[in-house]
Amino acid sequence: MPVDADTERCIKVLALKNAVEHRGKAEADAVVSKFLGSRSDLRRTIKDILPDIKAIIQDINSLSPDGQKSMLQELAPEEMKKKEITSPPSGSQLPPLEGAEQGKVVTRFPPEPNGYPHIGHAKAAIIDEEYAKMYGGRLILRFDDTNPLKEKLEYYDAISEGLQWLGVKPDLIKNTSDDISLLHDYGRKLVELGGAYVCTCAQDRMRDLRAKGLPCDCRADHTTALDRLKGFFGTLYDQNQAVMRFKGDMSDQNTAMRDPTLFRIIEGDHPKLGGSVRIWPTYDFAAPIEDSVDGVTHAMRTKEYELRNALYFAILDRLGLRKPAMIEFSRLEFEGVPVSKRKLRPLIDNGTIKSWDDPRLPTLAAFKKRGFLPEAIRKFVLSLGITLAETKPPFETLEAFNRKIIDPISPRLFFVKDPVEVRVRGAREQEVTLKNHPTDASLGSRRVRAGDTFFIAGEDAVHLKVGDEIRLIELYNIKIAEVRNSGAPLVAEIGSDEIRQSMPKIQWTAKDDMIDYNVMIPKQLYIGDDYNTNSLEVAKGFAESYAATLKPDTHIQFVRFGFCRIDDGYTSIMSHR
Ligand code: ATP
Ligand code: MG
Prior knowledge:
about 35% helix
């Protein structure tokens, strides 16, 4: 039974939508169930038209992702998803985008799946997303996966998870490797047009010539280039025996234009394509083509690529492809914390750091573990704007954004580091109620059993002299009666009822109601160029038993110590002071 025109259109649109949302491949089951959702009258006879549906899907899946998008745009423009227009959070420093038209802005975030996403990626992704939102446009997440030796499925997943945690929602997710045939085609075309050639010179020779600004012999002859083209995309050459180069200008002041590599031969299993592809485009070639065919209107990247803009546009020029606008911003770095994957991966590989979520790292997984909220990261990034200045913002600025959000929701608890025992003569046993927050009653309270033996932080104890009066917060004042050395407890008496301004007010734990407790305190990873061997301090002491009842991920403040995220019943990780 052939399907009628209306049904065909309906199925086409559903299949295109499904394909666009799923990296170019529509799934028959999904399409059929969507279709039946609106045409339940066909439930019993669907079998008869199933072959037609499958044929339509097959046709659509054979189109390039770009072809699918333009067909969907044509058949059902209302289905091409756009970002809802929302104004950026207050404090955003993003200037208007030059040449941006309402509803037509397309941005993209192109991470290479060769490591875990970090705060620098957050900056790029958030800026890309905020601009798409500002103009009711679209954000593309494009995994820039053209080096099988470096990329792993684990990293695609880590990037997706990181962005999800950040609340960055792409309208389309794709891989550069999805378009590998298209990229090969453009490579061939560029050679045919005389804009590129296959070079078989040894790497050191080429390095030498590029430094001197001299051309090699492979460059001159167009017929040789055409002859070599087939072999290059075939199996004539082994890895390192040939590359495809852009025909730029070997004496250009801008060394990026001195015949840079566009394709190289890499033998290795690609996480998505396996071993079927061995000719891989470089970033320099893939980025402009992908941006152009994906419909990107505003491409943004970090400033170190500035010198490669000329190449980006020259490639599109020679191929006659549409050119996006290019916008640069500075790389986000912090003092003493390497951000680049290039610097982070060795620390993991050589075992200095055990995992990508170690709280000392600037990865998103680490920030999460440390108790930073995605909203704080977004506000921080937007407060920086898109300046080109290479100044490192103080880490404290990011902390301040986070503190502002977690301060009102964090219960206050007591932790005493390097505890010192205090006996209070004549103290009666009692159960006291402590407020979880000094001003917000909605955070509740807790009951603590207190006898005559307490612990206070070593730091507080060292200053005490006989006769000093101090206040145990929310309990009572005590007056020091005896200080004895070598680990023996301090002895005190119950003090006056007066709470004086000048009196030290300190946190405590009661011997009858406390647990052993650790707080991990991440510090700067590097001091100057040297790895800081004390970068992860573990503060040991006692916390109130109540701490063990809090669920992992709860934000708390240990009074006079710092904000922390509960990791398990006996450990928390310090976010910041
Ligand atoms: P890395 O050195 O960490 O590998 P990269 O630039 O090679 O950095 P990609 O995964 O290729 O990493 O980056 C994806 C996008 O994120 C790029 O557009 C890049 O400009 C941007 N980006 C990467 N690091 C930073 C950073 N520190 N600050 C701002 N943007 C960054
Ligand atoms: Mg990179």
